[in-house]
Amino acid sequence: MRKESLRFFENLISLPSPSGFEDNASKLFKDYVDEFCDEVYVDTLGNVIGVIHAERSTDANIMVSGHIDEIGLMVKYIDDKGFIYFTAIGGVDTRLLMGFKVVIHTEKGKIKGVIGQKPIHLMEAKEREIVPKIKELFIDIGAKNKKEAEKYVSIGDPVTVDYGFERLLNNRFVGRGFDGRMGAFCGAELLRLVSYERDKLSMNLYCVATVQEEIGLRGATVSAYNIKPKVGIAVDVGFATDFPSVEAKLVGEAKLEGGPIISRGPNINPKLFDIIVNSARKNKIPYQIEGAPRGTGTDANVMQLTRGGVATALISVPLRYMHTPVELLSEKDLDNTINLLKYTVFALKPDMDFRPF
Questions:
Q1: Fewer CB within 10 Å, N- or C-terminus of the chain?
Q2: How many CB atoms lie within 10 A of CB 344?
Q3: Catalytic residue from among 22, 70, 213, 214
Q4: Could you tell me the CATH superfamily of domain 3-70+176-347?
């Protein structure tokens, strides 16, 4: 991966982007893709859409969607002693929160705090076995009382765990919120690569950094309706199963450096699936297959059901430790996913018929 792209990825991951509060990450995405696109615009919900038009005029559109929001927390209540109670934005695992450093994103800037808990020395044996409910957890920002806390923090402020981007051995990255800013990153890099070879593009390409995916696929619902795609490809993360405690027999087998995961099932158009697999084979890109027997829980869900129906696919990057602050993926899988998207986009033609028969 080129240095400029990796720097953009690191900066994107380092910005806070809980669902409904994606502005900083979305602005960074918009600024990055602007030089590669014919146009870039933002819709009312906050989706950022970068467009490259096919050289020959056509009404056939490809939508590539990667969501830019992450899970997080939100301030709900401040008690008399200045302790801050919160709720979840998206699918937060409360088991992981105790003892974490957090950042509250306020109008006055970043306010740091910690999620405290009773020391293990003071817990009874039964308490040590119980996972507390989120309503029982609190943030301590060091305030002496409610009045002081309210000088800095307001109800509704978003909160993120204070983890950034790190590099591990073997070109593997760890960070908070690869799900799903990784997908938006892939969309940005796709626009960059396609801009160098735009003569190979037969359909208009719309790459969307969608918002509010973690709370109901909301950004993709709006953007797909407006774009009216003939083909929709969601880019997200998939479950890697190459680490202890995960049973591949239940989840399916996927490993880091095994290549992008291509989903197959009712949410996926069979003909589009074949085009993606053939693109991988033709260009010697490693890939993995995931059986998805129902809706995939990604932007592909709503794209498929937009208007009169869209030929939809899902391509995922293998990810360990999803929805934790230490999500882990491979640079090699990122590169292979972006290249697979490029070759797939070039293989799509306006006159293709995606009906089953």
A1: C
A2: 26
A3: 213
A4: Zn peptidases (3.40.630.10)
